[in-house]
Amino acid sequence: MYRDVSLCNTYNYGDALYWDARYVEEGGASFDWYQRYSALRPFVRKFVPTSSRVLMVGCGNAEDMVKDGYVDIMNIDISSVVVEMMRKKYAHVPQLKYMQMDVRDMNFFQDESFDCVIDKGTLDSLMCGTDAPLSVSQMLEEVNRLLRPGGIYMLITYGDPSVRIPHLNQAGCNWKIVLYIIPRPGFESRVGCSSAKSIMEPVPLTERGLLPAGFVLEDPDSHYIYVCKKMHGSFGGAPQIPNQVGATIAQ
C-alpha cells in the first residue's frame, strides 16, 4: 500500500506517548486540527443529520457541533491525557462523551453502531507512524465495521487521491466516495485570481481515482475532504469506477 511521507518528520504521530507528552506540555490549549467547524459545517450538515450517532476519532473541539444541534457525539483518542482534559472541560455537556481508545482496535463498540465517523488528521497521524500501511488498514477496517450501511466516514486530510484512494479501496470496504477540496484556514487568493467554483462542488476524478491531468490547486496546502458512504456488501479491493464523470467514485 501507499505511504505519504511528504508531511512526516522525526516525530511518531501514531504513538500515544508522543501525544501524552505534547498535551501535557501545551496544557489546556484548545485544539481544532486542520479546519474549524465553521468551515466544515456545510459538509457535515449536508451529509450528517443532527440525530446521527457520531464517532469523532481523535479528540477535537466538538462543542460547536452540539451548538449546531448534534445530540450524540462519542470522542475517542489514543492519549489518556487529552481525554481526561476534555472530559473535565465538557462535563456539563451531556451530548459529548470521551473515551481513551486506539482507532486500530475499537472492539468496545458493536458492529454497525454509528451513523457517522469524522476524522480530522487521525489517519494522517497513523501515516506518519511506524508500520503505517498496517495501522491505516486496521483503522479503516474498524471504521467500516462500526458504520451502519449508508453511514458516512468523513475524512479530512492533507493526502491527495493518489495516496488516499488506494487505502480507502482496501479489501472488505465498499465506499461511494465524493471528494471536495478546501483551502487551509487563513488562505487568501492571489490578487486578480477568482474561482467560479463553490467549495461545495465535488472535485472531478479519473477512472483510476486520481485528480485530472493539469488540475491545479489554488492553495497548495489545501485540505481534501473524502465523504465516504458505506454501501452494502464488501468490495474486495478491486479498483472503483466512477458512476458519473468527475464527481463520485463508486462500485
From TrEMBL:
Pfam families per UniProt: Methyltransf_11 (PF08241)
Q: Which GO terms describe its molecular function?
A: S-adenosylmethionine-dependent methyltransferase activity
Mind telling me which Gene3D superfamilies this protein's record contains? Vaccinia Virus protein VP39 (3.40.50.150)
Tell me which CDD domains the record gives: AdoMet_MTases
SUPFAM superfamilies in the cross-refs: S-adenosyl-L-methionine-dependent methyltransferases
Highest rank taxon of the organism: Eukaryota
Q: Name one GO biological process term.
A: methylation
Which UniProt keywords are present, listed alphabetically?
Methyltransferase, Transferase
Occurrences of domain Methyltransferase type (ranges): 55-154
Report the leader peptide range: none
- Protein family per UniProt: Belongs to the methyltransferase superfamily.
PANTHER family for the chain: S-ADENOSYL-L-METHIONINE-DEPENDENT METHYLTRANSFERASES SUPERFAMILY PROTEIN, SAM-DEPENDENT METHYLTRANSFERASE SUPERFAMILY PROTEIN
Name of the protein described by the UniProt record: EEF1A lysine methyltransferase 4 isoform X2
Q: Which organism is it from?
A: Phoenix dactylifera (Date palm)
Q: What phylogenetic lineage does the species belong to? A: Eukaryota, Viridiplantae, Streptophyta, Embryophyta, Tracheophyta
**Gene name, please?**
LOC103702564
